[in-house]
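# step 3/5: fold
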Amino acid sequence: MLRLANRRIIVGVTGGIAAYKSAELIRRLKDQGADVRAVMTAAAQEFITPLTLQALSGNPVHTTLLDTEAEAAMGHIELARWGDLILVAPASADFIARIAHGHGNDLLTTLCLAARCPIAVAPAMNQAMWAAPANQTNIQKLKEMGIKLFGPAEGSQACGDVGPGRMLEATQLADMAADLFPSNILTGKRVVITAGPTREAIDPVRFISNHSSGKMGFALAEAARDAGAQVTLISGPVHLATPERVQRVDVVSAEDMLKAALERVPQTDIFIATAAVADFRPQQAPDHKIKKQDNSGTMTLTLVENPDIVATVARQQPRPFTVGFAAETRDVVNYARQKIARKNLDMIVANDVSRSDIGFNSEQNAVTVIWPQGQQTLELASKSQIARDIVALIAQRLPKP
């Protein structure tokens, strides 16, 4: 279960033999859906290399407070703003003392001072150091500052001693990090959404398309993300910015969109088809622009039917919970119900595009959400609000585990 989908976690690594566990921790955080950046102290780099953590996190590793290149790309203040959680693992006695007393003499302590997000530390040290009165005083200060304490565990230590001071295992730390965040209605779910129009080429400069703006699909991507889902947005040609923390796949034609969707279906829990896919495409599209003199004042196009993307997805085994959209101009609910049965959908969202107050380029919408045993009308509201309401209805209808 992707309990950390859409979460940004900064893993701080300080000096100590337990630094080798940080590599596994980064893997476990990413397994749960987190985007991870590592920050290493100078002492940490004596035990494990930045290259190792970069390879595991997929992001550059931050090591120096006054690195000119790093400051130009993402300054320490921007990095502090980026994170949803700072998890220092291992946290040495030295680091604990410095953060307890408000020091900001390296990148990691400076991030902790600048952070608005929660901070958690996973202590790792010799049992005698853990029990030392000065260290226990510092630990108490961290608690008073609202910093979370993950561990330590008890057991055998690298020095040969036995007692408290071992860093918790990576799986434990990843679970404790996930527990800090509220569980939303789609936490851990993987959602794929199609949006926008498709373009079907007549020749290299002309195409068949429609007026879809993609706004409803992009609003749904944001709503699903905010509900805790890991979202992939497959978009036709639109002029919209990619929602933050949403993976975007750009396509052009219906066949492109179908291919992108089918590649992701095996790893998808919910598929939402909002795209206005062209029903037909030219049977042939020449490699060169069609000239007027090539015909006698008329041009005949032979059209062939495009694949039905949502129906194709609904036929897959195993299949995701599949939601379609129906843009109709009359008898909206009746036509939508016919599509549910014909395309084997779990839910369909029907809207009346004949209305002048809603439509392809409007900022508002009004829809009827229909499923085999019921329906609910969502009155005129912003597309963002409609999207949140649709996501809530989807969450209610999902099969129980």
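# step 4/5: annotate
The first strand starts at residue 8 and ends at 13.
# step 5/5: archive (pending)
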